[in-house]
Batch of 2 targets.
Target 1
Amino acid sequence: MMLRKASLDASFWINAYQGGLTPFLPDYFQLFVCSTVEREILHPLTVKGLPVAAALQFRNWCDKEIIVRQDPIQAVDWYHTGENAATALAIENDYVLLIDDQNPYHFARSRGLKVVNSADFVVFLYSAGQLAYATAESTIGGLGLGKHLGRTALAALGALAQRKGER
Amino acid sequence: MATQSVTKTIRLSPEEGAALEQMSREEHLPETTLLKKLVLEGLARRRLEWACAAYARGEVDIGGAARYANISIYEMIDELKQRDIEMVSPEQFLNGLEDLADLFDMPKLREVADELRTSSTQ
């Protein structure tokens, strides 16, 4: 399957790590991260000295260039610096934007970006046969998505399961 | 460089003063130290509440909310989840499924997104 280039936001990484989804990311995406997002993800390590697992894995992947550092030439000025830079990087390079933050979302979509969140990725992995139904279901539960989104994500999973003949 | 500080004065009722005195004894802290601690804790709590409410109203993103509350993005995400404030709307989720369907040529994902969108509008 062809890898898609994607700009990573901290919100997506943190949730994806919590849901155990990060090992699947390199199978589908070539990941790029800008320096402001990198600082946000590494904050527990660099500022507080806390060995937070999501930050450790992120640093490890950056060191191995599984995640490539790249900054936008010109940041957009919509929201907070991290989200702005991640969005600008996606716009400048026509990357997918991986983000779990609904407020900058509309701006990104209005610029024609493809925007994917961690709940989408769980359902996608089930559709692709990478996760069993029960695992996908429990992962959605574990992401702490909130009532409405959780219900919609489970409905999507159920509809896909019917099409696959698994339910 | 010397750290500058400012002095703030508050007036308390006799009952409030007695309560502060009692807490000061219980926590083995001088009253002024306890007062400062309580003020700082209260400020932090109010800033966090404001940040979460502003996020829920769509006024700030997660990074901005975290910065206002003076916490990390990790902590902000936890706070939003504890308050059941959604970081992604169901509509955005369905759009994302469609984007993934396009990106990786998975028509079933698009079908499901269309189906759920239709059922949510009925």
Target 2
Amino acid sequence: MRAFVALLRKELRSYFGSPLVYLVAAAFLAYTGYYFHSDLIYFLTFGFGVNIMENFWQLLFMDVRLVLIFAVPLLTMRLFAEERRLGTLELLLTYPLRDGAIVAAKLGACLVVIGALLAATLVYPAWVYHLQPFPLRPLAAAYAGLLLLAAACAAYGVFVSSLTDSQVLAAFLTSMPLLLLWLLSWNEAAVGLSTLPLLRAISLFNHFQPFAVGIVDLRDVFYFVYATALFVWATLRVLEARQWRAGR
Amino acid sequence: MAALLGPNGSGKSTVMRMITGYFSPTSGSVHVAGIDMGVDSLRARRRIGYLPEQVTLYPDLTVRRYLGFVAGVRGLRGGAARRAVDEALARCHLGEVADRLTGKLSKGYRQRVGLAQALLGDPEVLVLDEPTVGLDPVQTVELRELIRGLVGRTVLISTHVLSEASQLCSRVVILARGRLVAEDTTGGLVRRLAELTRLTVRVEGPAAAVERALAALPGVAGVERLAGETPGEVAFVVLAPDPRPVQQRLAAAMVAGGWPLLELRAAAPGLEDLFVRLVTAADGG
């Protein structure tokens, strides 16, 4: 546990010691702020002030989700790829640390950063609430959904990062499938009726959509938890596989 | 203190990586301080400090922060961690660079930071992979001094420099092409090397008669004629395990035969000669 905390602190220090996290944060807040502004205007113009959850927050959270899938690969690409490139992974793996603690600390540090980014967006609902109070529990559900989605994406990003020593490649290979899943989710009308249920079942974003309108379905929660666990498991297998390709 | 000696590519680093739990062996087992690495790797790894061949540090951390991180990973915290870091800094003479980024350090300092992190948590077993490779002579001497001060622990050092092994270690294990070819005390190894001493002899005289005279000398293990001599001269290589008395007898024999001695040189054998010999011996057997 102590070892985990030490590693978590080191990872956070690495995050906040590099300019990347500030650039990502600035872009994230600029884009989500823009979406907040434009979605709010859209709601005021066309939403006739009814059903703020469906006509405003849903749109905003679907947009935040989109910004998130651009931000996550930039935050996860470094985690293992850099250790591989520097060669620090060898020493790290010989410390009295479980592989699980290493993966947990890296994923955990990434989620702390993502949590901080999402926490910063709380300014938007706080401001709206200040002008016109609205029910808060659906909003809490949406944020929980964003965190779950981010955890699944980040776990995937950590897995990809563990496969390569190139951060650029890690970011690319993380963002491409996420983008594909996003495309699938908005292009589903073009897909045949028989394949649609299957696509819906695997699509990351269809599982997020209920959260955006304030619905917490356990199936969706499990979907994200399973996806996260799957990629953590896969990362552990990659760390174990170091001996299969001996040498450097 | 033991040395793992072998030419490049002989498997020294692989052995060390298996001992430190980075690789697991495809067959056989690794025991560290009595603990089977395959059974309880975590407990075994707690007993080991490891300095990899390429000392790799996190360039965005200062030396103190980096060592603090390693102390935490090794299970120390709070005051104990701080004390351990201070002790490691002092022991490896890193006080003046404690607050510099590890990415900005010279090779010599990086190597010392690598040693400092291996010492954190006071492990019983230290595994140092080519600790002095790439250092300048002054740094090499300093680092050897540091390593010599690590008494009371089991230290395994890999090197391809014989003098390093003989200065630091009491036992030597020799690897070649991934196989253990010899295990000996340092003194025994030096003796084995002496057995390979060759004398180069150049004289003016008839080849056959000189060769007979050389082979007849007591203490000579073999005579080989060298090609490419100038007319009137002959040259031989004489194998003499104990060269000094042979040299004296040889000079006397040449004078007695009336053959002017032009050159008599003892070539100290290199470690490579020993490696070659051991490998050929191993292949033959």
